[in-house]
Amino acid sequence: MITLCGFAISNYYNVVKMALLEKGAPFAEELVMTGSKEESVLACSPLAKVPFIRTPQGSMCESHAILEYIEAAHPTPALLPVEPFAAAKVREMINYIDLHLELVARELYPQAFFGGTVSDSTKERVRKLLEKNIAGFKRLAKFTPYIAGDTFTLADCVAFNNLPLVGMATRVVYGEDMLAAAGVDYKSYTKLVGERASAQKVVADRKTATTRNL
Question: Which of the chain's ends, N or C, has fewer CB atoms near its CB within 10 Å?
Fold first, then answer.
């Protein structure tokens, strides 16, 4: 059985958790915070990042690799198309959201979510990047009704857990939700995906974990 290690406030943890729930795969959860110095953690995740998983075959870190493993180990229900090009387009969407939206917006999180501050130069640089990258995202995203087409895929696990963070962070720091301002109707999309049992479980567990950390 898979043991998913991390914490329920982490969006990357929740991406993997949502995929496992969609698969109906049996898994356990183990609370592990980032930055651990414990050898048992470093042996699985050398940079002490979460999530990582433990399996009967060994451990694995990096969320994209974990998603690929889950898809191969639990092929039904499929969260990647069988046709190679369509599958690659799902992976393209996953990479784009992670690298060009969430990772860029992450520089705003200290001020948006944790009571810190971000320098004016960082704000200006991030805003310019996001303006360009959101315009590119609009060209890739389908919303028909799912992010990569008419079928729920791994890309939806990523989008559901990441797009709201981008919207919230930019609203707090810049005074406007840059996704919504650019015409990305992600709120209707997340409402649709939020009706899924996997999404409801992830959201409920995240709220519980957030309350405990207040």
Answer: C
**CA dist., res. 28 & res. 10, Å (int):** 16
Same domain for 184 and 123: yes
Domain extent, residue 46, equals 2-73
φ and ψ of 84, to 5 deg: -60, -45
pLDDT in tens, 114-153: 999 999 999 999 999 999 999 999 999 999 999 999 999 9
- Is 79 inside a domain boundary? no
pLDDT band at 182 (very low <50, low <70, confident <90, very high): very high
Q: Is 127 exposed, middle or buried (0-12, 13-18, 19+ CB in 10 A)?
A: middle
Q: 41 Cβ partners below 8 Å, 6+ apart?
A: 5, 32, 48, 52
* Inter-residue contact 97 to 162 (CB < 8 Å): yes
Interval 136-147: pLDDT, tens: 999 999 999 999
Domain boundary at 73, 102, 126, which?
Answer: 73
Alpha-carbon span 129 to 181, nearest angstrom: 15
> Considering its fold, how many domains does the chain have in total?
2
CATH code, domain carrying 36: 3.40.30.10
